[in-house]
Amino acid sequence: MIGVASATQEVIQSTSNPRVREYRECVAKGIPGQVALEGVRLVGDALAAGLRLSAVYVTDTALADGDIRSIVETARRAGSSVYLVSDRVGHSMGATVNPQGLFALAGWSPRTGREVLEQVERHTQRASFVVLLDGLQDPGNVGTIVRTAAALGAEAVIAGAGSADPANPKVVRASMGAVFRIPVAREASLPRLMAWAAGRGWTAFATHVDPAGSTRVDELRWPPSAGVADTSSSASGEPPRALVVIGSEAHGVSSECLRQCAGAVHVPMARQVESLNAATAAAIVMYELSRNAGGFRG
Predict the structure, then answer these.
(1) Which residue in 49, 97, 109, 136 has its CB near the most CB atoms, within 10 A?
(2) Which residue from 168, 178, 184 is spatially nearest to 27, judged by alpha carbons?
């Protein structure tokens, strides 16, 4: 462990060092309750979100950069263990083509679906929606959807058991740190969660590629008062809340999840294009729902 201001610290030269192996194990296999971060943006975002960084790794070359040095010093003052590693070791830790020489282990893990939905019910007294990911195995798609959900006003993202783990470093990287800005959960059974939510007044919609039996997303009348200025509450006195289920491009939404949905929506397409990338379709649907619900909120 080093003090950032010191110029006489021992540099970790071996990739077999226990601290380095711990980081690489988190990247390769995952460590419960920990997420591996790489680069100035992710480490900085994690600090800004108040996450505790159990370990920070910086190369001796990267430490000469003023921005990186500031991040490392902030982490050290917050109680993080800081380790100086050689450029060679830092390169071995990197998952990007040109590593910036800054890495960290942060205390973070996805929550459960029920926790997230209950939080929305307690704290969001307006029309709102949560995105469910059904069978999205590609971590790039999952991370991109989390990032888009944060930007377009979704309240949370919940990944089903068949989707990439939100704690996967590739998901975190693709989200550009958005996993720290919006509640993200992992749920063993989306159909069970959806059935539980339906009993609490949530309405579920599935995305679908087939126009037959589904509604054009730009014609979806949600919230029920879409097009009316006040969308703050439904007839029951509770604000309208929706679950939007996104399936993979190859397989779509599972039949088990479809059975829990009140309806399906599709994105109209031209030139005989059969389908859209899941993240692209999700972005269009989220945009329409946010627009209907009264705009984009931070």
Answers:
(1) 136
(2) 168
